[in-house]
Amino acid sequence: MGYRVVDVDSVEPESDRPSECRKLAEPGGLDAAAINRFRAEPGEQLPLAYHYHETQQEAFYVLDGTLAVETPDRTYEVATDDLFVVDPESPQRAYNPAEADGPVTVLAVGAPPASGDAVAYDPDDE
């Protein structure tokens, strides 16, 4: 048996993200899934770009605030305590709208872990 407690605030945020991203899979010893906690101020997006994953399914659980998720068909508003799921090959861009009243905090889980399968998506190419 094995157990771990991870102090999320002790995990250093990624330096290359447009919002605060703390990658928790490695400190948690997770091999089969990626898990990240994002905190985005108004006007910040969670991922690096509008994208999709070839094999990874993603789930965004909103801990606080309202998350906007742009897709080719529409923009979803995901409220606190709601879950938004993205299937493989489904383009999306998650962000906190500039007009939001405050930050949004999101727990993002992806499986299998994305090891380079993210593909940039440009809606103008449609």
TrEMBL record:
InterPro entries: Cupin_2, RmlC-like_jellyroll, RmlC_Cupin_sf. Residues 38-109 form the Cupin type-2 domain. Residues 1-24 are annotated as: Disordered. It holds the Pfam family Cupin_2. Residues 14-24 have a biased composition (Basic and acidic residues). This is Cupin. It comes from Halorubrum hochstenium ATCC 700873. The lineage of its organism: Archaea, Methanobacteriati, Methanobacteriota, Stenosarchaea group, Halobacteria.
